[in-house]
Amino acid sequence: MPQLAIHEDCTGCMACYNSCSHEAIEITKDDEGFSQPVVIEDKCVKCNLCEMSCPIVNPLEEKEFQPHAYAAWHEEDRSVSSSGGAFSAFARKVLAEGGIVVGAAFDKALHLRHTAVNRIEGLESLRGSKYVQSEIEDTFRTIRKYLQDGRKVLFCGTPCQVAGLHGFLRKDYDKLLTADLVCHGVPSDKVFQNYLKKLKNRLCTAKDELYIEKYEFRHRDGWGISPSISTSNNCQLLYGVDALYMEAFDKNALFRKSCYHCPFAKIPRVGDVTLADFWGLGRHGKKFKHSVTKGVSLILVNTEKGNSALKNLDNTFIEERNIEEALIENHNLIGASKRHAKREDIIKAFLDERKNLDDIDRQYHLVDHSVKGMIKMWLQKLGLFKPIKALYNWYKSL
Ligand SMILES: Cc1cc2nc3c(=O)[nH]c(=O)nc-3n(C[C@H](O)[C@H](O)[C@H](O)COP(=O)(O)OP(=O)(O)OC[C@H]3O[C@@H](n4cnc5c(N)ncnc54)[C@H](O)[C@@H]3O)c2cc1C
Question: Is residue 32 part of a domain?
Fold first, then answer.
């Protein structure tokens, strides 16, 4: 029988599932809600394609290209993106050339899945970081079909998903551009859905059912960035216990087991380009002459193909920076997140229907209730936290 990655190591990239044309791989969910492939013995013809495509069992060849780092933003899309809109800059170019862009979008029930778009308007649903593992389903097969038809394709995803796509394709296509995100880790859809249920119970009044149309992990509001929910008639920013999912995310408590020893959190990176927040820009070494408050992307160029794609971008500010500067404050570029000591218990608590968000917070102290933490929360609520932090950083850099 083919040997796939063991449970602790499997990233759920779906390369094996996509490579099997005999329907001999079933996608099951583990207790924590993460997708897990299982080989069905009766249907397996032992061709081993699944094993060969697995980037954990069969690591990809490493690139020899010397990566370059750039600070960048797209003029138009910066304000509606997570960082500086670098993803949109690449996506717009591919779409303008008649190509397809594949990224993660929420469906109406707020389940995240990889989706292909062929029009600029479609980019809206792809933009923005969603801090939950997206379902790949048969996306890789769809991408191969587009490539075989001669279409350009931009694929954006977590590094394991980009590795999965390369493992599945097992050859380089000139018309494929891959963008991997610097990734802190991914929680399961099951934990996210349970959090949403608990949040609704916490926020809804006795007579009103709360219907959340949109959840934004990084809603930009003036100077601030907070998670938010939108209903048909309002948008509400979330703080403290209401934002418990993000508190647990930031504390590395909810990730897939493989995330804590992610083999793709390193240089050379797996995509043609790597996209991230440019944290620490201008604070370490060469000064940065422009304002960073509206969001700046870090783009790492990892291949010649990535390099020519960068050179072709329209309406995009680009400045080359020292790669060391990019590494100092972004540890997930070259290392996995450290597992929270109570990870298993915290995930169980989020999945436990009897527990509400306050119970979980009381038990695991995820929200900082100290005076300092409360001041920070109020400054965030008033939109003052980021300007004060920017002032402080400016003062320190004098
Ligand atoms: C789970 C996760 C963890 C991250 N951790 C870090 C980090 O530790 N440090 C850091 O610097 N940056 C991190 N990022 C990346 C960062 O948040 C931005 O997504 C990135 O800088 C690109 O921003 P942008 O403005 O160019 O594009 P945006 O418009 O924000 O587009 C983001 C792109 O990412 C895709 N995407 C969004 N969510 C997912 C998902 N769950 N799975 C796969 N693809 C997705 C979208 O489809 C889109 O293509 C993370 C992103 C995710 C999704």
Answer: no
Question: Do 96 and 174 belong to one domain?
Answer: yes
With H, G, I as helix, E, B as strand and everything else as coil, classify residue 273.
Answer: strand
Do 179 and 268 fall into the same domain? yes
pTM tops 0.90, yes or no: yes
Give CA–CA dist 192/345, Å, rounded: 16
Q: Whose CA is nearest to atom 49 of ligand 1?
A: 103
* Residue that has been written with the tokens 């929420």 in this structure: 106
Atom of ligand 1 nearest to the CA of 87: 26
**CATH code where residue 97 lies:** 3.40.640
Last residue of a domain, one of 304, 333, 362: 333
> Does 174 share its domain with 262?
yes
Report the run of H or E that residue 335 belongs to, with start and end: none
> Tens of pLDDT along 104-145?
999 999 999 999 999 999 999 999 999 999 999 999 999 999
pLDDT at 207: 58
pLDDT of residue 389: 75
pLDDT in tens, 163-175: 999 999 999 999 9
Three-state SS string over 200-236 comes to HHHHCCCCCCCCCCEEEEEEEECCEEEEEEECCCCEE
Ligand 1 atom having least distance to the Cα of 133: 41
Handedness of CA 77, 81, 83, 89 (dihedral sign): negative
| Distance from Cα 275 to the centre of ligand 1, integer Å | 7
Please tell me the total count of domains within the chain. Answer: 2
